[in-house]
């Protein structure tokens, strides 16, 4: 995804070469798989960090493990690839939520700040360089459904029908959630003094 002026350019990353890159990746070509990963992982991490910050990296890792195992069975174009990837991530997130309910963990309240590693990951550095971290934190303040719809529509570049399929809703409900989210975001951006 590239940023141009005030809008995110969410056009497809691989484009016309997608079928050849996919076939090579399905045949075990690591360089081809890297093209797929580099083209979608930043948007995937942004999406997960807005809707599930505390487990975003774990869910992303589980998503890619599933993708690697299932890649040979995938059929479709680049738009279908992105929809499949984000649907897989959402399912991994739901699986993790169920697991956390069944096996709650102990909080690390006694952990001192100096005990926490402070090495930023590449995605965080990239987000900082793009100047979007503040905007993403405001998106994370939206109700979960609205934040998820915004991340899938804007960051992942999916159309209303694809988002509806991923979140298990109707295109109309997605349009309403998008409208409400954008209206709320305009207010939050203005209040925080964020300009895009």
SSE layout:
Elements: E1 2-4, E2 7-9, H1 18-26, H2 30-51, H3 56-70, H4 78-102, H5 122-130, H6 133-139, H7 144-155, H8 160-167, H9 171-192
Antiparallel strand pairs: 1-2
Helix pairs in contact: 1-2, 2-3, 2-7, 3-4, 4-8, 7-9, 8-9
Share in β-strands:
under 5%
Quaternary status: single chain
Classification by helices and strands:
mainly alpha
Please compute the radius of gyration using only Cα atoms: 18 Å
One letter per element, helices H and strands E, the order comes to EEHHHHHHHHH
Polypeptide structure, described:
With 196 residues, the protein is mostly helical. Helices cover 66% and strands 3% of the residues. It contains 9 helices and 2 strands. The protein has helices at residues 18-26, 30-51, 56-70, 78-102, 122-130, 133-139, 144-155, 160-167, 171-192, and strands at residues 2-4, 7-9. A two-stranded antiparallel ribbon has the order 1-2. Strand 1 (2-4) and strand 2 form a beta hairpin. Helix 7 crosses helix 9 (171-192). The protein starts with a strand and ends with a helix. Mean pLDDT is 81; it is low at 1-9.
């Amino acid at each position: 995804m590239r940023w141009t002026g005030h809008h995110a350019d969410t056009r497809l990353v691989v484009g016309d070469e997608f079928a050849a890159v996919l076939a090579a990746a399905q045949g075990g070509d690591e360089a081809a798989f890297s093209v797929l990963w580099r083209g979608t992982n930043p948007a995937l991490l942004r999406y997960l960090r807005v809707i599930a910050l505390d487990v975003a990296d774990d869910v992303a890792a589980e998503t890619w493990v599933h993708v690697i195992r299932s890649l040979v069975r995938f059929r479709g174009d680049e738009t279908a690839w992105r929809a499949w990837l984000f649907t897989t991530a959402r399912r991994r997130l739901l699986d993790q939520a169920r697991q956390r309910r069944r096996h709650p963990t102990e909080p690390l309240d006694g952990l001192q700040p100096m005990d926490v590693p402070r090495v930023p990951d590449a995605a965080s550095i990239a987000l900082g360089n793009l100047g979007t971290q503040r905007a993403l934190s405001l998106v994370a303040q939206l109700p979960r459904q609205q934040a998820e719809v915004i991340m899938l529509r804007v960051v992942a570049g999916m159309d209303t029908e694809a988002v509806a399929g991923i979140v298990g809703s109707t295109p109309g409900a997605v349009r309403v959630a998008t409208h409400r989210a954008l209206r709320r975001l305009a207010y939050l951006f203005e209040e925080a003094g964020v300009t895009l």
